[in-house]
Amino acid sequence: QKEVEQNSGPLSVPEGAIASLNCTYSDRGSQSFFWYRQYSGKSPELIMSIYSNGDKEDGRFTAQLNKASQYVSLLIRDSQPSDSATYLCAVNGGGGSNYKLTFGKGTLLTVNP
Amino acid sequence: DGGITQSPKYLFRKEGQNVTLSCEQNLNHDAMYWYRQDPGQGLRLIYYSQIVNDFQKGDIAEGYSVSREKKESFPLTVTSAQKNPTAFYLCASSPYLGQSSNSPLHFGNGTRLTVT
Fold it and tell me: N or C: which end of chain A has fewer CB within 10 A?
């Protein structure tokens, strides 16, 4: 059973701080990693994708991937109250199932004004 | 604008009734998916389809059925055999580029089903 683990939180940070969200996965064959943001009662929206080891930056968001440690993280710089949401980590299966995503349960982030 | 349309947004049914959730996409994506989300839980895969007239069971297919007669449409039927049907149902799509696909999923706005 492929697993994706996230700290459920809630993670609370003050406005302007850096929020750090972490995710570990069990399938060493995984090749593709995604972060989705989900506001309460809404559907998930893609905010970052990462496919190779290292950092990938997009605006205030940075995704970090370490395949050897089976670890992927999301950093949100200059956190805003509008960033308050649940963040879902999703991982593609390796081998023949790499078109299916396995999702973690999500980390609830609260940014306090 | 291209996107995925799920309807209705809210659906109420009595226990024992089958109900069909609609999902239509105009993104020209090959692959379509149905996920279920329960409070405080991640998304769990119900069914997926890579091409027309073909679909595969996901992790929690029992009590559900699907069809894929057209590329744009992937309706989900929640049958009376599904023991806990109340949930938030999400339809998604992605380009299917073969076994090496690494495309993310794009989600519809979801249908919240309540069965009493």
Answer: N
